[in-house]
Amino acid sequence: MADSGNQSCLLGSQDTLSFLVCLFHVWEEWAGLEQLEDYLSFLEYLLWVFTPLVVVFLVPFLIVILLYLSILFLHVYKRKNQLKEAYSNNLWDGARKTLATLWDGHGAIWHGYEIHGMEKIPNRGPALIVYYHGAIPIDYYYFLAHVIIQKGRTCHSVADHFLFKIPGFKLLLEVFSVIHGPQEECVRALRNGHLLGISPGGVREAMFSDETYRLFWGKRKGFAQVAIDCQVPIIPMFTQNLREGFRSLGTLRLFRWLYERFRLPVAPIYGGFPVKFRTFLGDPIPYDPNINAAELAERVVQQAVQSLIDKHQQIPGSILRALLERFYTKHKDFQHQN
Question: What is the mean pLDDT of the chain?
Answer without folding.
Answer: 84
